[in-house]
Amino acid sequence: MALNVVMLGPPGAGKGTQADRFAAARGIPKISTGDILREAVQAGSELGRRAQAIMARGELVGDDVMIGIVRERLGRPDAARGFVLDGFPRTVAQAEALDALMAGRGALVVVDLAVADEELVRRLTSRRVCGSCGANAAGPAEAACGRCGGTLVQRSDDREDVVRERLRVYARNTRPLLEFYGSRPTFRSVDGARAPEAVAAALAAAIDGAADAGSGKAVEPFRELAR
Predict the structure, then answer these.
(1) pLDDT in tens, 133-179
(2) For residue 110, which of 6, 91, 115, 117 is within the disulfide window of CB 3.0 to 4.6 Å?
């Protein structure tokens, strides 16, 4: 049975890291919209050329182009056993299109990685990157990068005022998605404020339980691991 997962979560929740980890553990591809957009542009496909023209004008890529690019990616052989989607869907229209793409592919599991805003602000404002090689790193600004010795700096979009605005935008845009998916037996919300190992274990349990529910198996109500 294919394992088809959508991972939702605000900036700073660790969604990308957890999606990478889960996908690698289950031997299915993690599909990031940023990655497949870049691939489509580099490949010079019709959709890639349309996306490149849109981005060159400084505009957001619309639902029709994103849905087409995701459809192409899910059609590859490596996604036949399932996938973990990171960054899609972002709108209800995209979610409805994804439902249509799931015909004959099995249930769609949707997991929301929930973290309180204040914890997200703390995480993002303390994040640093190397100004030379771009590596993510821990440590105060102006410290040295452990990889190349360059200076660690704070990204402009990690300033507190910018972070809070990003979180407001995310909450506003994502609320309709949570309402769209929230009543489904294959939807789960997982506390992402814990240590990465605990979050990974809770995610795996939640996804497995939701997948069983989607297959029609009798399952006990999902209970998260204790903090």
Answers:
(1) 988 876 676 688 888 989 999 888 889 999 999 999 899 988 899 99
(2) 6
